[in-house]
Structure formats: C-alpha cells, structure tokens
Amino acid sequence: MTHEPFHRTHDDMLSERPAPLATVGVLGWMRANLFSSLANTALTILAIYLLWISVPPFLQWAIFDGQLYGEDRFSCTGDGACWAWLDQRIGQFLYGFYPSEETWRIDLALVLLFPALAPWLMENVPGKRYMRWFSVAYPFIATFLLVGGFGLTEVSTDDLGGFSLNLVVGLSGIVLSLPVGILLALGRQSRLPLIRWFSVIFIEVVRGVPLITLLFVSNIILPIFLPADVALNSVVRVIVMITAFASAYMAEVIRGGLQAIPKGQYEAAQAMGLGYWQSMRLIILPQALKISIPGIVNTFIGLFKDTTLVIVIGLFDILGIARAMVSNPDWLGLSSETYVFVSLFFFVVCYAMSRYSMSLERKLDTDQR
Amino acid sequence: MSATEQAANNAPVIEIDGLNKWYGAFHVLRDINLSVDQSERIVICGPSGSGKSTLIRCINRLEEHQEGRIVVDGTRLTNDLKNIDAVRREVGMVFQSFNLFPHLTVLENCTLAPIWVRKTPKAEAEAIAMEYLERVKIPEQAGKFPGQLSGGQQQRVAIARSLCMRPKIMLFDEPTSALDPEMIKEVLDVMVDLADTGMTMLVVTHEMGFASQVADRVIFMDEGQIVEQNTPDEFFNNPQSERTKLFLSQILSH
Q1: Which residue of A has its CA nearest to B161?
Q2: Which residues are registered as beta bridge partners of B26?
Q3: Contact residues, chain B, for A283 at CB < 8 Å
C-alpha cells in the first residue's frame, strides 16, 4: 500500500465550470421550488387544485356572468354579479355627499398628492428642494380645495365621504403619526423623568383602549370639556384620534428599532462631538427607522383600514356608503358585490404601501452588498 | 521660542488628579493621577477588568466620574455640556469594534462630524477626508459602505474619521483586538505613522511590540489602579512590581 506524501501543493488552479443544467432556468426553478420533495410536490398539486376550484368560478361570477347596467337590482336577471349599482352610485362611493359639480376639487387634490409625495418617496426627482416646499404647502392647498372659501364654494366637511374620506383621514394619520411616534419613542428613552413618564403614560393608555372607544370619547366627551362655542370639526377630531392611536403603536415599533442599534453607534457619535438631536437625526434614527420599516408599514396599513371606523361617529366613508346602499330596497342583498368592490380599494392602496416598503428596504440595505 | 510659549508647550494636555469612579458599588477606578504632555505617546495595558478602557473613556466623558479632576486641553470636565462638547471636539477616539456608521459611505463617515460639528463647508470637508483616507491608504474605498470592507480597512477608516476633526489628542481603545491576525499589522502601521506626526496618543492595547516601538511611557493597571509606569525599555526589561511581572510573563510567554 503506497501512502501519498503528507506534503502536497496544488499549483494549477481549477477553471470555472457552468452550473449543471438541471439547476438553472425555468426547469431548475420549478425543480427547486415546486417539486423538490414528495411533500413539496403534493403541496404544489394541492395549491393548483385549490386555485382551480376557486378562481374560475369567481371570475365566472364577477366578470363573465356579471351584469353592468340596469335600473335596480331587479333588472339583474342572470346568475352572476350585479354591478348595475356602480353606474348610479360610484360617485357616492368615491366622494360621499360632496356636491357633484365640485368633485373636480377632490380629483385635483388627489392629482397634486403625487408631486407632493414624490420628493420623499423617490430618489431621482428633479428640483427636489423646490418640490419639498410644495410638499409642505400641500396640506394647506388640499384643505383649501376640499373645504373651499376664498372664492371657492364652501363645502361642509360633513359632506366629505366615500373613499375620499378614507384617503383624507388615512393620509393625514400616516403623515402625522410617524413624527409623533418618533418623538414618543425618543421620549420613552429620555433621561428626563417628566418626558419619559408622559411618553409611557400616553403610549400605554392610548394603546390599551380600543380605537372605537377613542372615537366615541372624541365625539361625546371632548365637547363636554371644551367651551360650548368651541366646536371641533368632526373630521379633524377623527384625524387627531386616529393619529394618537397609531402613533402609540408607532412609538413601540420604533423603540424596537432603537434598541437594535449597538451602543457603539451612540458612543461614536458622542465621541465626535455630535449633540443629542444631531446624533439622533444623522446616525441613530436613519438606522432605527430602516430596521423598523416592516413594523411602520404594518402600522400604516392598520391605520388606513381603521379609517372605516369613522362610521361610529356618523361619518360615511366608503364602507358606510356601502352599508347604506345594501340596506336600500333598490339594491337590497347585493352585499357580495359591494364588499368585493370596497375591498378592492383598500387592497390596492395597502398592497402599494407594502410593495413600496419592500423596494425601500432593498434600496437601504447597505450592510451586505 | 519665548518663555511663555515654552511654558505653554510644556503644560500637560491632560491632567487627571485623584480620579475615582464607581459602577454602582463597584470601585472601578481608584485614585488615578496622570498627566500627559503634548505629543506624548502612552500605552496602557493590564488584565481585563483592570479599568484601562474606563480610564480613557473618562477623558472624553463617555463615562462620568464621581470624584477627582480631569482637565483636557485646558477645559475641566464637569456636567457642563458646553465643556464636554469642547473636549470632544479636540479628542478623537478609535474603538475596538470600529463603530463606523453602516448607513453612510466611507467618505460620509469621515465628513459627518467636520460638517455638523465644526461647520466645515462640504467640499472642504471632503478634501480633508480624502487627505486622511490617503494617509491610511484606502482612498479608493471612499464610495463604499463600511460593510463592504475588511476589519482592518474599517479600523483604518475609523482612524481617518477621527483625524478629520483634526483632534489634538487621540484615544485608542483596544484598536486591534477585534481584528483577524493578518490585519493587525496594517492598523498598527497607520498608528505608528500617526505617532511620527507628533500626535498625543493614549492607546489601550495588548500589542507589546507596538508599545516598545512607539510608546514614551507604558502604564500598567490592575484592579482600577495604576500599578506601575515606566519607559518601555525599563517596563519590559526591568519590571518592579510582582503583578507587572506576572502580567508580562502571561502575555509574553508564547
């Protein structure tokens, strides 16, 4: 038996070879992800079966057998969905009781929203600095457009409704709850007892109470404490309450992010002479918020869906309009159609937020490139 | 050189008198007296838990002390935030775990403090940063993120980042302890270069080769006290205290 020598060298390096064919391309992907084992194959077949028994009948009901036009529900005679109400009621679903000749103002406010958001959400926006000034002005422009005055016909905020109400309350809550949540999270870690106690009490009390209760409180109890001649606008009240509620959650999400930042980051910032607010703004928060993105967007999505609770204080958002319609004798019993329609609106907005947050996470991932 | 300039140059840049510090009930620093001259290079060594890191962290007030007097560059460290900020502007610090800011590029790491603390215009801060990145021999990494660099490169960036503030004093807290062996030398080389420029340096390290090559004075600490201090020659070849002898035999035995 010959022994190879213990000492060996390998002078010529091996050249690269392509990966085996069965592991690349569509076939490779299917093999790795759909049919990698017996159990996986069974699950794949089960999933295909479930899709087969659910999707085609739904499409049949909603689209192929669906009826688009008609006077009322009795003109829908087929087996499919009855979309006839869309034609007559779509305005209410979108704008509530806003005067129909003024709805262009809501449309304009929505269109202007995109340039107002762009400099914050996108990287390559021309004239970013000026765009940001527009963003700052946008809430005032939008309020002016919606409420009127100064030459525009005044519209009561009680007439605001439908999906535009969800958007107004939801966007205001989202934009306000992030900074308030950040301040509460920092406050909860403050070395000053007064600030810390206030933050803790606010977070625990607001988070520990159902949102519906808060909305009732804002409607019934607040006016008792306020002087009789101070009437807080009901939409403003809802925005305040939803913001307070979401920012309590937000604060805890962000606190989680803050705790994930190593102590060394604080120390390095301090050692360089950065002050508290500078180190927070430049060093700590950019990292903590990045970690918290999934939780933040989770809170945003929850907040947006919670805007449907405004119904308890007598405002008619898109869900309120839908409920009113399905109890109307002309359209009685069309709840499947209306709720599918309403769900679609929420899903589109929430899914867009989710996708955006995922792309943001990828963009900010500087740790391992 | 006039007499007053002479006196100013000879005045210690760091004066520590009767420094005592406790963590809760634990007496971590006990009656420390230390005076550091301009351009002096001091290496502090000792077993772990001896208080050597705590001592240098007191100099830029990352740690508060309960008793005693610390004067850095003429400014006495008290609870006064203004004094603390003034000291931190003049004192750079390099950490064991680098503590680079992972969300910023190497260049942005280096320009951040000059821009926000010293109010240096951005272009000037970038020029200074490139100058120091060249001194630590990694100007080509300026656009990368810290996570893309090796440990040795990260620590060199951290040194450059501190130098960009043009500090009068540099503190090193075990700068090579977190590095793989093959990267220790590149960091020590940078530190030797820095010592040659006349920088005042306090270095907590176990690199005894560095100590004997660079240090003006070696300080040995144990149980929160300065047990022995001497020139490197005397310290290594003729240690006085039993504890120093034991420590040296332990770290030099292999």
Answers
A1: A272
A2: B23
A3: 101, 112
Question: Over the stretch A19-41, which tens digit does the pLDDT of each residue have?
Answer: 777 677 788 888 888 888 889 89
Which residue is it, tokens 């109470």?
A: A209
The alpha carbon of B113 is separated from its chain's Cα centroid by a whole number of angstroms, namely: 18
3-state secondary structure chain B: CCHHHHHHHHCCCEEEEEEEEEECCEEEEEEEEEEECCCCEEEEECCCCCCHHHHHHHHCCCCCCCEEEEEECCEECCCCHHHHHHHHHHEEEECCCCCCCCCCCHHHHHHHHHHHCCCCCHHHHHHHHHHHHHHCCCHHHCCCCHHHCCHHHHHHHHHHHHHCCCCCEEEEECCCCCCCHHHHHHHHHHHHHHHHCCCEEEEECCCHHHHHHHCCEEEEEECCEEEEEECHHHHHHCCCCHHHHHHHHHHHCC
- Whether A260 has its CB under 8 Å from any CB of chain B: the answer is no
Residue with tokens 């190497």: B106
A&B contacts, CB < 8 Å: 65
Pairing status of strand B91-94 against strand B169-173: parallel
DSSP E strand boundaries for chain A: none
Distance set, CA A244 to CA A197, A204, A214, A247 (Å): 17, 12, 9, 5
- Chain A hits for B91, CB-CB cut-off 8 Å, are 271
Question: What integer is the mean pLDDT of A260-276?
Answer: 94
Closest by CA position to A206, among listed A153, A242, A154: A242
A271 at B interface, C-beta within 8 A: yes
* For B167, nearest residue in chain A (alpha carbons): A272
Query: Are the CB atoms for B193 and B135 separated by under 8 Å?
Result: yes
Residue numbers in A near B99 (CB within 8 A): 262, 264-265, 267-268
CA B185, distance to chain mean position in Å, is 17
Low-confidence stretches of chain B (pLDDT < 50) are: 1-7
Q: What ipTM was assigned to the predicted interfaces of this complex?
A: 0.91
Which residues, 6+ apart, have CB-to-CB distance to A325 below 8 Å?
A: A85, A89, A92, A331, A334, A338
Helix (H, G, I), strand (E, B) or coil at A42: helix
β-sheet bridge partners, residue B225: B222
Quote the distance between the C-alpha of residue A19 and its chain's center: 42
Beta carbons of B246 and B47 less than 8 angstroms apart: no
Torsion over CA of A233, A238, A239 and A243, rounded to 10 degrees?
140
Distance CA(B94)–CA(B229), nearest Å, equals 23
Count the residues in chain A.
Answer: 369
| Cα(A35)–Cα(B181) distance, integer angstroms | 46
**pTM for this structure?**
0.85
Neighbours of A78 (CB within 10 A): 11
d(CA A118, CA A218): 33
Given CB atoms, is A367 within the 8 Å cutoff of chain B?
yes
Q: How many angstroms away from the CA of A368 is the closest CA of chain B?
A: 6
A284 pLDDT higher than 90: yes
- DSSP assignment, residue A149? B
Alpha-carbon span B205 to B174, nearest angstrom: 5
Query: Rounded to an integer, what distance in angstroms lies between the CA atom of residue A212 and that of residue A167?
Result: 19
